[in-house]
Amino acid sequence: METQQTASSSRTKGVACSSCWIREQRCQCCLVRFPVSESQYKLYAANGSPIKTYGTRVLTINLGLKRLCTWEFCVAEVERPIIGADFLKKNGLVVDLRNRCLTEEVLRTKILGSIHMSIGSITTVTHESDYHKLLEKFPDIKTPRRTDVHAKHQVVHHIETRRTPVAEHSRRLAPDKLKIAKAEIDLMIGQGICRPSKSRYASPLHMVQKKNGD
């Protein structure tokens, strides 16, 4: 997504910039273009090819928000300057692809833009590591399993049970937990992972909040 903004005055420790910016959530850092000496720091494109870098530079940019944004950018050999996920997170900016805009969470300011799919992801990790080679060897583990694919054979697995099942009395969940549980179960039913059942084999649902708040 990119926007075109008018230039503004210079500020301390940076330059107010009016370049055409590319916002790329898959990019791990922010990039700009400046003719300076090359550094040893390397970036890698989506195809694994290295991208030359030339140190860092602090810039103050005007994205059309109610405030200017100052950030330390990595100077790299790229066609256009790129705003990465680090910049978006620090400044509380959310990319809304459906409405083609950039939203500032605190002040609720929106910037309309346009979507371009020609920009590939840029990472600080080379694709030549042993982990990447292992993932390339087994590509199926990165692909979500499709639940709408039916087996071509007639083999069916059963679990034989005897006697009355061990069961516990139902327990009511708190309204907030019940809402979350219903949403997750409806999602799994929609994906074909599970289906409604009247089986007597049931247990109360226990939900514990994770450290990250989920």
UniProtKB/TrEMBL annotation:
<dbReference type="InterPro" id="IPR043502">
    <property type="entry name" value="DNA/RNA_pol_sf"/>
</dbReference>
<dbReference type="GO" id="GO:0071897">
    <property type="term" value="P:DNA biosynthetic process"/>
</dbReference>
<protein>
    <submittedName>
        <fullName>Uncharacterized protein LOC107268526</fullName>
    </submittedName>
</protein>
